[in-house]
Design brief:
The protein is an alpha/beta fold and 365 residues long. The protein folds into 2 domains: 179 residues, Glycogen Phosphorylase B (Rossmann fold), CATH 3.40.50; 159 residues, Rossmann fold, CATH 3.40.50.2000. 41% of the residues lie in helices and 16% in strands. It contains 13 helices and 13 strands. Strands 3-2-1-4-5-6-7 form a 7-stranded parallel β-sheet. A 6-stranded parallel β-sheet has the order 10-9-8-11-12-13, with helices on both faces. Helix 1 packs across helix 13. The longest helix has 18 residues.
């Protein structure tokens, strides 16, 4: 059947999963060349797919999923691919349906810690039961130990059932800029979807506390999302407009990191192994992050950054304030973060680990 792997991912949304696929293909130098995109919209066109199959994004509708899975099955039969490597719940569902009737093997890549695995409603319990069926006969890889533990607890699995491969970062693209901290205006940055799980409202509350303590800080927020209006209203409510800048979608992320002094990620849920943290570390920035999912696996507390509890504006403001008061600490932690990224999270290490997964599962020789 050949040593071929077909990556499957949705093109109707752009986030960590799509960036992981970009990084994987870059690191493997297209040694795993076949990418199937479910729909092809927006920035996902940069993925340069080998095949685009119809998909309207409605993965909660069986007819929509079935149409997409039929197209995927035809692709599999045409090319006789033994393995489908899916990223994202909708792609996992499509690959499961498509592979029911062809001798293709499957690898599911888990990126997040979904709340339905701790069911509080009938819908959650049904979705959890479906996940057990979808993943039952597939090989599974998680982006962090926290993601693996979350899924194994939810599905009642032994942790040996899922392997862990941390995401990597392009060390040549995300490089430290000229580190000269201006103590009269320390620039804090966050790059994230403006969505509830990112906890940005707590960061805004933390900035209100920093303003009240007369800390010389500014905040730059890169990203778009459904909460932009409410977050802008919260900034206005606290009188923080002179301190906070909403940048929207930023294409040139290396420049974004070079123009800030400290990176913050105040997530409260649904994280896996945040790429923003790796990019910031590679860029020589200290990271303030919440103890959510895989963040503590990348940020070494007190060495490459500071970890705080989620949903705690006071702790967030104290951590940021500690760095603002010590430009030397910003530089020291930023340097340590870059060194750790080089040591543990390069794209080459990521690609090597994924090839080992492919080999161990018998997908490639």
């Amino acid at each position: 059947m050949g040593d071929k792997v077909s990556i499957l991912i949705s093109g109707r949304m752009y986030g960590g999963g799509q960036r992981v696929v970009e990084d994987l293909r870059l690191a493997l130098k297209l040694q795993v060349p076949f990418l199937v995109l479910m729909g092809c919209e927006g920035r996902c066109r940069s993925l340069a797919p080998n095949k685009v199959i119809p998909y309207d994004g409605r993965y909660n509708r069986i007819l929509s999923l079935w149409r997409t899975s039929v197209a995927m099955r035809q692709w599999l039969r045409e090319w006789n691919y033994p393995t489908v490597h899916s990223h994202g719940w909708d792609a996992d569902l499509v690959s499961w349906l498509a592979c029911l009737f062809v001798p293709a093997r499957r690898l599911v890549h888990l990126h997040v810690t979904p709340t339905f695995l701790v069911p509080v409603s009938l819908r959650d319990r049904l979705r959890c039961a479906l996940a057990k069926v979808v993943l039952r006969k597939s090989a599974v890889v998680a982006v962090s130990h926290a993601v693996r533990s979350h899924w194994c607890r939810g599905l009642g699995w032994s942790e040996s059932r899922i392997c862990v491969v941390h995401n990597g970062v392009d060390l040549d693209r995300f490089v430290p800029g000229h580190r000269q901290i201006n103590p009269s205006c320390v620039v804090i940055g966050v790059a994230a979807r403006l969505a509830p799980m990112k906890g940005l409202e707590y960061l805004i509350e933390a900035f209100a506390r920093l303003r009240d303590l007369h800390k010389p800080v500014k905040l730059r927020i890169a990203g778009e999302g459904s909460l932009r209006g409410s977050l802008e209203a919260k900034v206005a409510e606290f009188g923080l407009k002179p301190m906070v800048e909403f940048l929207g979608h930023v294409e040139d992320m290396p420049s974004f990191y070079r123009d800030i002094d400290v990176f913050v990620l105040p997530s409260v849920a649904m994280e896996g192994f945040p790429l923003g943290i790796l990019e910031a570390m590679s860029s020589g920035l200290p990271v303030v992050a919440t103890r959510v999912a895989g963040a503590p696996e990348s940020v070494e507390d007190g060495v490459t950054g500071l970890l705080v509890p989620p949903r705690d504006p006071l702790a967030l403001s104290l951590a940021i304030g500690r760095l603002v008061d010590s430009p030397e600490l910003i530089v020291t932690m930023g340097d340590a973060g870059r060194q750790r990224a080089e040591r543990e999270f390069s794209l080459q290490q990521f690609a090597s680990a994924m090839c080992e997964v492919y080999r161990n599962c018998g997908f490639i020789a």
